[in-house]
Description:
Layout: E1 4-11, H1 17-27, H2 45-50, E2 57-65, E3 68-76, H3 84-92, E4 96-102, H4 109-120, E5 124-130, H5 139-150, E6 158-159, H6 169-178, E7 191-200, E8 204-213, E9 216-217, E10 221-224, E11 230-232, E12 235-239, E13 243-246, E14 248-249, E15 254-258, E16 272-275, E17 294-300, H7 306-319, E18 324-330, E19 334-341, H8 344-358, E20 362-364, E21 371-375, E22 380-383, E23 395-410, H9 414-423, E24 427-435, E25 438-446, H10 447-450, H11 454-461, E26 467-478, E27 480-487, E28 490-491, E29 497-500, H12 501-518, E30 526-532, E31 535-542, H13 558-578, H14 585-590
Parallel strand pairs: 1-3, 1-4, 4-5, 5-6
Antiparallel strand pairs: 2-3, 7-8, 7-16, 8-15, 9-14, 10-11, 10-16, 12-13, 12-15, 17-19, 17-20, 18-19, 21-22, 21-23, 23-25, 23-26, 24-25, 27-28, 27-29, 27-30, 30-31
Amino acid sequence: MKNIRNFCIIAHIDHGKSTLADRLLELTKTLSDRDMENQVLDDMDLEKEKGITIKSHAIQMDYVYKGETYKLNLIDTPGHVDFSYEVSRSIASCEGALLVVDASQGVQAQTISNLYQAVDHGLEIIPVLNKIDMDSAMVEVVTDEVCDLLGCEPEDVYKVSARTGEGVAPLLDAIVEKIPAPAGDPEAPLQALIFDSVFNSFRGIIAYFKIMNGSIRKGDKVKFFNTGKEYVADEIGVLKMQLKPTDTIGCGDVGYIISGIKSAAEVKVGDTITHVEAPCDAAIAGFEEVKPMLFAGMYPVQADRYEDLRATLEKFQLNDASFVYEPESSLALGFGFRCGFLGLLHMEIVQERLFREFAMDVITTVPNVSYKVYTTKGEVLDVHNPSGLPAPTLIEHIEEPYIKAQIITNTDFYGPVMKLCMDKRGTLKGEHYITANRVELSYELPLSEIVFDFYDKLKSISKGYASFDYHLMGYRPAKLVKLDILLNGDPADALSTLIHEDHAYDFGRKICLKLKDLIPRQQFDIAIQAAIGAKIIARETVRQVRKDVTAKCYGGDITRKRKLLEKQKEGKKRMRQIGTVQVPQSAFMAVLKLD
């Protein structure tokens, strides 16, 4: 046990976590030169395309230090705020963390929030300054920032360039020296924490775990503590680039178990594995429940694929524990699921992964957050969907979720950032100058205002220099109204939203204009209206496609032309009564990008 080190790499987006992991794998010769590629742990196509880490990746390396071989279990984590749940799970299964800071960018919001999480779990922090080979690197300035943040000495900060490999070798020695070996009792009953799982169509479900106490052998009878189900450990092993089977895994080590589990409901991330004969007394605590920030409906494109979608979401949830769903139905779209996400990027990635990995095409409705509705009868309802809102006469008041946001920006963009937050109904709670030209702003903002385009706007007005992190702080009363979109008088419930009274008129007008461009023209006029209750606040018309029925009348009496036009008018009227309007999927997504 004393030769095991479990650590993760945490940082803000694009500060070079995955590149640093590449260098560590190279130095420990975990991979041959032939198999090496950039960001080798990011094994999903999406991760390579977007250049971000979406999943945490665990891998074991062997390193010889002073004549002894050490097992280093590394977890490379995502940096985007939408995948912070992955980070919290990685931190729960480690004893130390490398805190990577970009020398050209300095300390940013995710750096701070990930650091606080690691400190709360009692992890040993090793500060690393990355990208020192860049021309724009401010090594001394950023070193001082890191020292202020951690209360350490400048010589404790390791200066590396993950791209060139400069300064990475001493980092491996530091991991062995500074990060403590896992604490645990090898003789105690088995207690192992499941921190991730994947679905394999041949082997069933593969669960990744870290052993806190005891040890496990191949062929042992094990049970999962929370579900109470019993299995035989058909195969256990360690996580190299591929899964590598072994006969036994000891205390403090990280590994995987395959026991032919077919049902996704039986494996829960955060569950405890123990032996059937000598079980442990209690499950391992310290695993936080995921709190979805925004909700959207997902419906199969073909209504008869509802059961396929259910099976797909079950399998998908194994690999993404921050994704939650429950069944719901809609008037326009039939049966589907109400899904909870951590943010807009998370939602986009889920949709893309369902299509790529499971060939499942889905329609996603306009996302919204969950509100608390207080009725005149004294009930409190959780409303995730505008169609679930009670009648206006029964509502006493509505409360919406608020967040506490930390924004770190350059002082040059101080004004535009404040204006953006004020436009989003934010209140400034405090400001703190980290250095002479970098300021940290604390804001309280309604969650519904930031889920759509806040992050994109913040990046564009600050030329990519502002960073943003947030957490939920509770609910507050708000003046909200339900905005319905009517197509030819029929409400399209997938497009209805709950919105602040002051923004309703503006938003309604923009949606109508946008839909006018997106809905294909029919043989009859289509009226697109935005309504609050019975009051119409905006209207656009998609003009009909007309055929010139009088073209064959050359010369002759005007009554002949009128007779043909009247006949056409009757036909159009009949068509309008039975015609239906199809809303394309692009319309649902375009509503998010109204500006």
